[in-house]
Amino acid sequence: MTTTPSRRRLRLGAFATAAGSNVAAWRHHATPSDAPVNLEHLKTIARTAEAGKLDYLFIADSAYITKDSTPYFLSRFEPLTILSALSAVTERIGLVGTFTTSYSEPFTTARQLASLDKLSGGRAGWNAVTSALEGLGRNHGQEKLMEHGLRYKLAEEYIEVVKGLWDSWEDDAFVRNKETGRYADLDKMHTLNYVGEFFKVQGPLNIERSPQGRPIVFQAGGSDEGKSLAAREADAIFSRHSDPKLAAEFAKDIRARARQFGRRPEEILIFPSITPIVGSTEEEALRRYEETSAYLDIDTAVKYLSRYFSFFDFGRYPLDEPLPELGEIGKDSFKSTAELYLKMAREEKLTLRQLALRASTPKGDFVGTPEQIADRIEQRFESGDIDGYIVSGHVQPEGIRDFVEQVVPILQKRGLFRTEYEADTLRGNLGLAYPDNRYKSERERQA
């Protein structure tokens, strides 16, 4: 396929699933068996993604496990620790981590992320999640999972507080003049004094702004409440919809909601997830998928599926019969993901075995030669319904390496993707506007 250079620039992130998107990928011969806690392995993924000029590296997280958890959940770094370590061995790639709004304090999260942002020179991002596992609540002194809608109401206030704290200092507040002895202009320090339904936070934050102003806010909710939160607060969205029709519907919905909140739709970037598997021929790529899928046993696959349904016991159902109606199972857990899997099972008449394997060994439409994968990326990007993709390797580091070395050069040659970073910050490389400090803006309006 030949193209003319696009006026829009494709954005790409790397999903740092340490072993791979296949939940049994740790068994792959080229993947460290301790991949989630292997610093050298994670450094390799980060450096590979940066060598490909990808926009950001994403670390997902959840702080609840059981004996039924799939292997790579059992021991893994929490995001701030590993992203801080990776900031020291990278220079331009963004560093995005998951931090919960349901089981943490906004001042702590604001300070941690602002510290990472300053430490990395303006490369931090926050995937704000409401958390959807009842056991996670029990790890934080709560017996019952908060109702889905209430979690998002709390999250809205939480993000509002964090953003307010990130404006505690104006950009030029720290003068550090050794001659005069003046360290900071305290007139440019601002106290939040927030009082809301869920939080009461005084401030100010005890760290200055970074070169990108404040971290980039990502959101991944696909429910009605999640989409409204993203349209109101997020700079970028992780979407589950790589299918062209669903992607178009999702984008239209988000853009309409953004306008209702007084935002311009182009202020929000949409990133579906893909799992490219590259082969010299389509047959080789499919064979590689089958080889990695063979590592997975059905019991592990079913356990993985159950996580999205509050660890619902699927053992009561036959593996090779169509999945029965499950009613509202999962409505207060991973609501949109549970609904997506149930819709998939219903429309395609999938058995429990088929659905579990589909969830735990994702394949999708991006299995083929480098040219075929690049073609599909280009076609869907040019539709205007997405801004790029977050790339998940089927096994790591093989998956991200193959994509960077074989697919990215084709996208660059077609003028779709950068050959060099445009900026030092994540915000700059994503093409997002610099956020003015609210207090400075208010003072200038009054002047």
TrEMBL record:
Q: Family assignment?
A: Belongs to the NtaA/SnaA/DszA monooxygenase family.
Extract the Pfam families matched here.
Answer: Bac_luciferase
Tell me which residues make up the Luciferase-like domain: 25-384
**Per its record, how is this protein called by name?**
LLM class flavin-dependent oxidoreductase
Which GO terms of the molecular function aspect are on file? monooxygenase activity; oxidoreductase activity, acting on paired donors, with incorporation or reduction of molecular oxygen
The family database entries (CDD domains) matched by this protein are listed as: Nitrilotriacetate_monoxgenase
Q: Which residues form a coiled coil?
A: none
Provide the species name: Cohnella fermenti
Residues the entry annotates as binding FMN: D61, T98, H148, Y152, S223
Give the record's keywords alphabetically: Flavoprotein, FMN, Monooxygenase, Oxidoreductase
